Predict the structure.
Amino acid sequence: MYKIAKENLSALFQKIAGDKELYLPVKNGGQTNYAAWDETVEVDIDTLKTVKSAKDAFFPQFETLYNVKREGKKLDLQQEALKDKDFVIFGMKACDIQGVKVLDNVFLSEPVDTYYAARRAHGIIVAMACHEPEESCFCKVFGLDAADPSAADVATWMVDGELYWKALTEKGEALTASVKDLLTDADEAKVEAEKAQIRAIVEKLPYSNLSLEGWGGDATDVKFKSPVWETLYKGCLACGTCTFVCPTCQCYDIKDYTTKDGIQRYRCWDSCMYSDFTLMAGGNNRTSQLQRYRQRFMHKLVYYPANNNGMYACVGCGRCVEKCPSSLNIVKVIKAFENEGGSKA
Amino acid sequence: MSECTCNPGYTKDTLVPQIGVITDIREETPDVKTFRVNALDGGKLFEHMPGQCAMVCVPGVSEGMFSITSSPTNKEYQEFSIKRCGVLTEKLHSLEVGDQITVRGPYGNNFPVETELKGKNLLFIAGGIGLAPLRSVINYVLDNRENYGTVDILYGSRSADDLVQLKEIQEVWMKAPNVNVYLTIDREQEGWDGHVGFVPTYLKEIGFDTDKTALVCGPPIMIKFVLQGLKEMGYTDEQIYTTLELRMKCGIGKCGRCNIGTKFVCKDGPVFRYDQIEELPDEY
Amino acid sequence: MQELINKAKELLANGTVVRVLGWRAGDLSYNPEPAFFETEEDLQKFVYDGFCGANLSKYMIEASKLDGKTLVFLKPCDTYSFNQLIKEHRVDREKAYIVGVGCRGKLDIDKIKEQGIKGIESVEGTELDGPDTLTIKTLYGDKTCSYASAMLGRCHVCKGKEHMIADEIIGESKDTKDAERFDAVKAVEAMSPEERFNFFQKELRKCIRCNACRNVCPACSCRKCVFDSNKFDSAQKANVDSFEEKMFHVIRAFHVAGRCTDCGECSRVCPQGIQLHLFNRKFIKDINEYYGEFQAGADIEARGPLTNYTFDDVEPSIVKERG
């Protein structure tokens, strides 16, 4: 294990960015989100949660798939280049990394999404333990350990003004070697104490003991037909906030953008909350917000687990808890069904 | 990564289509045209199975999922019968032979012509443009006649002018041995001496034996009453196949919009046996 | 709060209304949600405190389509929106029983978090007649902050404690204004064109096109939004280029000009903290200067400045001069 003083981090970032793209939490206009590093940005690794998850690094909100030019009857099609350079994404929390694993099951299953696969192959994840978990967090419910983000290439901990650094994979070892001269040897005692402290806080979080009993792949019938949805969805504004801040939402749209140079065919995030999501010339199979609201949570807590060996498409990051304009969120959905069971029994 | 055998270098997983050339356009009805499409080198775009679909796109307009109406036994080209009903189909109808479009696929599952349907007596029931996916199966079956039992085809449309593929029906299907074709139109029409009445009603009038497997495709309302009719006649859910049509963007089960329950219609469908549909949440 | 619940129970019981539109207690101390209540039992979850910032007027568009009357609780500033919706024939006055609720400013949990307070277990002192100081219990120790320091931005330029429309009023309101409404607009106006462009670019670049601002906005009540059209290249979901980043918000600001009551919901709900109200407030300031003082939603009679003509209207050339 190594460490580096917090005040030397800019040197570390500079070094990493010397031969790789580097993405990390950056504060812009009061909000912290992942962005490319350069010397002018205001790095913010103290804010626990970025507004958007780190999903953009692998599945950007907007990306061009290919360009088409038309000459008379003929079409000329040029595919957009796939990511071919290594990049580092620094500061990902355990929940966001789990979010990427949820996306992996979708995009890396046959037929593979090559745009995503290329980014995954070239991405190096430097994770960061959650120094001070917050009340909206519930990653423990999904078996994650905020204190020890082990599903990364490098894990780091910020303790007493020093960043502790531990390589976990070959990619991580290589990255470590490339910045070795900025790191000093460290023992794990302080990190172990930090882990214990984080875990103790996690135990006390209000949502940590949320029960998922009754959810999962076999619950389609009973949950879909429940009358609970009829009251639950009513405050929903049908905006896409929950979808766009969620680390696991992967629905997308493919559209054309006509430019003076031709047609740009792009993919962008879409939201099952939007009224036109399933609209087609022949009709619409989800015409009400009740149906759309139900679909989002059924997908996360029933359909996805059914297709992915029980893995939930929620990681407990709590962004929807913090950001939903109507304060509706997946926790309230889970609890509403809990209560339903209680009152009707 | 799956590479297409007939067009090396083309990988269907990238969302990047091939360029297709329209090599023939047949005007079937006032609002249905059948487009023949070839790859740039003149060959087939890809190999497919009956019931599979492909994403057809006019760049700058839109992309949509259409069933491939030609049979895989056709070694020269693919055909799509497309009804004019929206922005994309409007544009497609304005295209001419020689125009290029983009096509990616094939997507989805297919009617189980090589497994469950083999050796079976087949009953095809189609309404309007719903004949498009079944035509692929019918021609596949006729080209491999020895593998299947009796073939009955019940096809109806609004009017005589709206019957798709009428020439082929009359010149090929009606003349094929051991094939019975039943045509019907919704309302009386001058010059039509065939049956008049809705498909579900005609179905009950004919009263097919239950020794068949039914393949049904058409507008939702027709499907609903045909299923009712088949049930009354004694058909079980396991004897009935149909296709579902939902909005799709990716065609590979990832973009999320054709998700119903645990299924993605573009990937796990569009062909479903009726007992599989019964298990889905009521959202299709 | 009990008085509100009692009133709701009474009106449900005597058949005046068939449902109640209010706020349901959240599972954290700061996240109540807009909700409908139909029975006395439902009302056990009713809450009204400092975190009930959501303007319920817009929900009345849907409620107006339902059978029977809805009891709706409106804060003073929400009543402007309701009036404007009446004027636009989006809500049915006859379908609403309006109880004006007291307000002493509404709270913004982010304003508390910005003060470095995290791991919030409870916030005490949020009730209408509570103290001037909030006591916040957190996983990292107890904290306090003043009520005013935790208020939504809009409450600092409060339009006043009067309800513009109501069948009855329950609870005392307080004018929480401690800043000039147009100061922030003036600050932007004072910027050089280049600074101003950079300012807005920086703000709007944060936009993730979630449409929360539009969907919460009482003035955005079109049955089908132009940005939801499939025929439109730049529909809703993503900003394809920097032009689009601005276009969505600028078009929206133009569309609600003269109708926006400055309720501030757009800025309250923006997940990226974009100061969206600045656009609308700039329009309000300009309209005030060109056509005379006007407050949308102050009544249901006055014609809007942009849909009315008077001989005193400013000439286009003067707009150009002044603009």
